[in-house]
Amino acid sequence: MDRRLNFSVKPVTARFIAPDGEIVETTIEIRTNPITFRTCRVTLSRKGEKEPGTERLPAPPPDADHTANCPFCKPQLTSKTPQCIESLAPSGRLIHGKSVLFPNLFPYGSYSAVSLFDDNHFVEIGTASVASYCDSFLNCAQYLKNILATDPEALYMAITQNHLPSAGGSLLHPHLQVNADRVVSNHHRFLRRRATEYFKAWGTRLFADYLRHELEEGKRYIGSTGEWQWLTAFAPEGFYEIWGVFQGCTSFRDLKDEDWADLARGVVRTQQFYRSLCRNGYNLGMLFVEDGNASLELRVVILARSNFAPWVRNDHTGFEVMLGDMATFVPPEETARLAQDFWV
Q1: Does 263 lie in the same domain as 169?
Q2: How many Cα neighbours within 13 Å face the side chain of 114?
Q3: Within 10 Å of residue 92's Cβ, how many Cβ atoms?
Q4: What pairs with residue 103 in β-bridges?
Q5: Cα–Cα 20 to 30 A to 57, which of 6, 70, 193, 252?
Q6: Could you report the per-residue pLDDT of 232-256, keeping only the tens digit for each?
Q7: Long-range CB contact pairs, 70-74, < 8 A, 24+
């Protein structure tokens, strides 16, 4: 296993003279992501730091009750949102339970859509129902299936979420984004090649071996919801980064309704964990390469973002933007220990 995936931690030491005159030594862990080979830095000296705006859960956004101008709220929904072409949705929009799906008015690719949760304009992190998430995921899945039926070359697919403007969300009304394209994204390209080369070299799957290592070591494993196994990222590229891995499943088309419900349960539990940390912004992402390749298993990545509140600093500094190394404060092992309470 060690030859296949290298869970590398390289400690480096910084020495300086403190204001009181004492010589101080502090350790920074440089970790290498076994999947991407990218490095991150865990600045252990900042572990106990309370960032401004995280002492308590921030108040709702000022426009949390402003439903009259929201295009996703009823009764504006049908008049303010676009409709799908007939081959993707004969009635113009896809409906599953309380979820409504329609094209993104400002698309990011050939097939770009929005999947709403329910009729609520603002839902605080950790308070959405599992059923609402499940309906939204199932709506996304149906849309992607319809795309593949009409354009099988649009095989680079994603389901994402931006919760609140600090995570990139342009509208408060809770929704998922779904995208498909013939043009490969950077992450799709890398993961497809990495998983394929790994399978050719070892005869086993990349995420399956990663998960096996984490289950054996146990330090970053959180728990399960059905077939989804939840753990913290060994070398996080965001704050409190959590993964859900579905071992053995390489296509979203193989997921049953209960698998989507189990995914929704894990997502809501992750949100509840973030809420306990007084965090109100987060991102979610799932990437699919629907080319019949049996190497890349399903994984969802979730991470907390800077709070949406006045005078809160951004979670990306010049270090991340210019050097390319994420710098986080809390070791993933500590994040896993704290998150486990929400999987009991």
Answers
A1: yes
A2: 23
A3: 15
A4: 113
A5: 70
A6: 999 999 999 999 999 999 999 999 9
A7: 70/121, 70/171, 70/172, 70/173, 71/105, 71/171, 72/114, 72/116, 72/121, 72/171, 72/173, 72/175, 73/119, 73/121, 73/173, 74/119
Residues 6+ apart with CB under 8 A from 340: 222, 223
91 and 32 in a common domain:
no
Q: Are residues 23 and 147 in the same domain?
A: no
Residue 217 has pLDDT above 90, yes or no: yes
- The proportion of the chain whose per-residue pLDDT surpasses 90, expressed as a percent, equals 85
- Helix and strand numbers, DSSP H then E, in the chain: 7, 14
Is 63 a domain residue? no
pTM for the model stands at 0.95
Dist. CA 7–CA 214, nearest whole Å: 10
What secondary structure, in 3-state letters, does 261-304 show?
HHHHHHHHHHHHHHHHCCCCEEEEEEEEECCCCCCCCEEEEEEE
